[in-house]
Amino acid sequence: xxxxxxxxxxxxxxxxxxxxxxxxxxxxxxxxxxxxxxxxxxxxxxxxxxxxxxxxxxxxxxxxxxxxxxxxxxxxxxxxxxxxxxxxxxxxxxxxxxxxxxxxxxxxxxxxxxxxxxxxxxxxxxxxxxxxxxxxxxxxxxxxxxxxxxxxxxxxxxxxxxxxxxxxxxxxxxxxxxxxxxxxxxxxxxxxxxxxxxxxxxxxxxxxxxxxxxxxxxxxxxxxxxxxxxxxxxxxxxxxxxxxxxxxxxxxxxxxxxxxxxxxxxxxxxxxxxxxxxxxxxxxxxxxxxxxxxxxxxxxxxxxxxxxxxxxxxxxxxxxxxxxxxxxxxxxxxxxxxxxxxxxxxxxxxxxxxxxxxxxxxxxxxxxxxxxxxxxxxxxxxxxxxxxxxxxxxxxxxxxxxxxxxxxxxxxxxxxxxxxxxxxxxxxxxxxxxxxxxxxxxxxxxxxxxxxxxxxxxxxxxxxxxxxxxxxxxxxxxxxxxxxxxxxxxxxxxxxxxxxxxxxxxxxxxxxxxxxxxxxxxxxxxxxxxxxxxxxxxxxxxxxxxxxxxxxxxxxxxxxxxxxxxxxxxxxxxxxxxxxxxxxxxxxxxxxxxxxxxxxxxxxxxxxxxxxxxxxxxxxxxxxxxxxxxxxxxxxxxx
Length: 639
Known about the structure:
Blueprint: H1 2-15, E1 39-44, E2 47-51, E3 63-68, E4 71-72, E5 83-87, E6 94-102, E7 105-106, E8 112-116, E9 124-128, E10 135-136, E11 142-143, E12 145-153, E13 162-169, E14 185-189, E15 195-200, E16 215-217, E17 226-232, E18 235-236, E19 242-243, E20 255-257, E21 272-274, E22 284-290, E23 296-301, E24 323-328, E25 336-341, E26 348-354, E27 359-366, E28 384-386, E29 395-398, E30 401-403, E31 409-412, E32 421-424, E33 434-438, E34 446-450, E35 456-460, E36 469-472, E37 482-485, E38 491-492, E39 498-500, E40 510-512, E41 521-524, E42 527-532, E43 537-543, E44 547-548, E45 559-561, E46 570-575, E47 580-584, H2 601-608, E48 631-632, E49 635-636
Antiparallel strand pairs: 1-2, 2-5, 3-4, 3-6, 6-7, 6-8, 9-47, 10-11, 12-13, 13-14, 14-15, 16-17, 17-22, 18-19, 20-21, 22-23, 24-25, 25-26, 26-27, 28-29, 29-30, 30-31, 32-33, 33-34, 34-35, 36-37, 38-39, 40-41, 41-42, 42-43, 44-46, 45-46, 46-47, 48-49
């Protein structure tokens, strides 16, 4: 087995490009037509911060005039960044407009507006939600709802994003646990809180982190995003139409059983209920929904169907109902949606194209197919997508194995399942993409490897389940991106050397570009922290009061990424009373202006896949950090 894997990886190493790096043809690549992304945020009682996008289509010397209520408030065009502090102490609403200036003349290309509401809160946009009513399970238990994972998409074609939100019932379950769950609901909201639609996935889709992976992307290049996800009999679209059989109920009522008596017990074990709420049978569909209306545009049979449960790893639908999904430019031009099932044993990835009328299966990769056996059992609770081999088409890094753009297995490392995975250009002097991953097999620990080939650059073996790992440039004294994990014995540099063995309170869940320098900050629960490399300590930078995170110990926001405003990232959290979302926007001045990360396909897809499984932070397909030199994404650095 090991010999076969070694031969497989060696063959790929010989065939792979020695200078693999993303090589997209941006003239053909179908992407969003982004607007200016103007946002105005109350910084304090007397100041409003205005920020906006700098687009790659803007000439390098573009400046920007800022207007408030039709009056220009910038004495000269803003050239140093895409950020402006306006002295505005009135509690009244104000409309801000940003106009590009090229060669001293204002243009009307990609002008952008935003209205600051009256009595606006400080530091964030308040997005009120239509909280669902409480529900009751067939067992008579009451459950409530809270906002959970979110995504973004331009559903109406105006160049700006709407929020697509999954509501999580309080009785949602991990696949390992029995029990009824409430119905999964998907909403769409404008940033002002206007609800556009609600989809109810119905009683035959179980609620939990691994059941519903929803992809939001413009798949047919009509300027408007679609939503794609698994549905079942009884799912209801945004217009009230039922998918399949409205009367079907595939939930198991459960059966009583008596566990075996444990050695030393003096009393017989009490009877227990087994398999209640699980779903072992029934029709499953893949449905494309209109982003504007929530209407189901087409439903086809989900690929793959669950079939025999044991083939996925057990007979309780724990392993068979582990789903992942992603967006990928498999042909280097059109975005495809890839729906995935299984990663502990059998693993299937199915790619689909949507042309506006028909959803067609492009290819299917199945580890049950002859020749693919060694790719089984290698999946993560997440995945990454990028052109890792420089052919201009995306590959799918599915944990410890990778599938090529054509649906063929590229390589398998054989290191098995893990909970976290990070992909980017780690080394500013090496254009190749690399991967930092952790493993659950109580052997392989954490690994840093080449994305194109699977070749291990360095490894930190460990005899425990290494559950989390993180990668971010947080130390300007070290070249490239730093790495750490739950068992890394401190922070490691790109050579694998320990550079901070005594680091204290270093978060390991999420990261965000927030304060305006080139280093990244840590995000955990409702706190953004800054690493101080001088004393090897991470200290809080900002705390978001009355807001909270999701998904237990994973402590991730609903979403983080460059959603609006300048190149820095925003944080979307739910309020503690679960009635609203808050989009937190940095009001810290920055001297830098970069083309928005959203124009990079690797970064944009990392936002689309953030809701998949255990959420991972955004990461671009290029190096970004303190080592940047020359002209980079519209910014000129001094050598």
